[in-house]
Amino acid sequence: MTQPISLQSLVPTPAAGFEQPFEMLEACHQRVHRMLALLARLRAHLRDNGNDVQGQQAARDVMRYFDQAAPQHHMDEELHVFPPLLERGDARVQDVVRRLQQDHLQMEARWTTAREVLVLVAQGELQRLSPEDEARLDAFAGLYDDHIRAEEEIAYPAAQPLLDEPARAAMSEDMMRRRGAA
Q: What CATH architecture applies to the domain 17-178?
């Protein structure tokens, strides 16, 4: 009998509210890390046990997150964090923001190919990952560590003083509206 894939990573942690948009963005990063950890556990599960109901559910959970929440998070940054930095940030920060924007495009493209693998897992059509499948998943997952670090250590700290209270309130309202939480 196989060991279940732990879905503990899906248990919500105390989340920041929309009234704290930067804290909410960082909480989303924590969820990204948990979803990438679930993806890693799924890959190990497929190597050790083949595909089963637990593997299929884990694949669906990863897809749900990167299909729904991750694009919203990127939109938050593209609409509210990056513009003031490109307009008023110093040259170093502007260079970082341009790289982060390119990362978002790469993440979207690489998610498309990684998702193709996960769809086959979720449908029970793929029992084991080929080296090509592993490479597609690696290419996607590998984009995140440096990206998140640059956002949390450079972009967010530089953006916060540029956004006054009305701008933060507008950011919060937009984040809620796009998620249907308004």
A: Up-down Bundle (1.20)
pTM flag (> 0.85): yes
Q: How does pLDDT run along the chain (182 residues), one tens digit per residue? A: 445 555 444 444 445 677 899 999 999 999 999 999 999 999 999 999 999 999 999 999 999 999 999 999 999 999 999 999 999 999 999 999 999 999 999 999 999 999 999 999 999 999 999 999 999 999 999 999 999 999 999 999 999 999 999 999 999 999 999 999 86
Closest Cα partner for 178 from 31, 69, 101, 22? 69
CA angle (127, 132, 138) in 5-degree steps: 95
> Alpha helices of 123-164 — where are they, by DSSP H?
131-141, 144-150, 156-159
